[in-house]
What does this fold into?
Amino acid sequence: KHFSKGRAKGKLVAGFDLNSDRINMVIVDKLGIIRDVKTEWFSEVTSHGFPKDKANTIRLQALSRLLDYAYHHGVSVVLFEDLNRIKNRKFTKSKTANRKITRFPKRKLLEHGIVMALKNGFKVYLVNPAYTSKLGERLGTELGLDKHTASAYVLTLKYLGVSEIPLSISSS
It folds into this structure.
């Protein structure tokens, strides 16, 4: 209440897909039609030897930029994956994948996103991310989106309760 910008008065919904090297955001209307797509990349943070604190700062700044973008583009509801529902990932045989898994502060990123969204006056919801990646892979090829952007889109559709996926994308 003391630090907020005010109430976000838009009618759009933004879904976020948080990953160790990028954050994808999809803005949709109440019918589930995509209005805007934006991705913040920071692939250098998963590089071997990159300072952990600097990586966290870069991730948090990228998330803040996306939330600010959403605020100025008519979003009133923000959706994040409920990352606490995801089981802790087991280590794989890939050294690169293991490094990305261990260096990704999912709880810190999610908490920052929630606090910043509330400061911007958004309504914040955590959506169960079950099967969003699998659906995102299939849907992404149909819509011409990468699987992480499509996964964020599936989150918004879950929230809206849309069972039939609108295959048209608005150019505005």
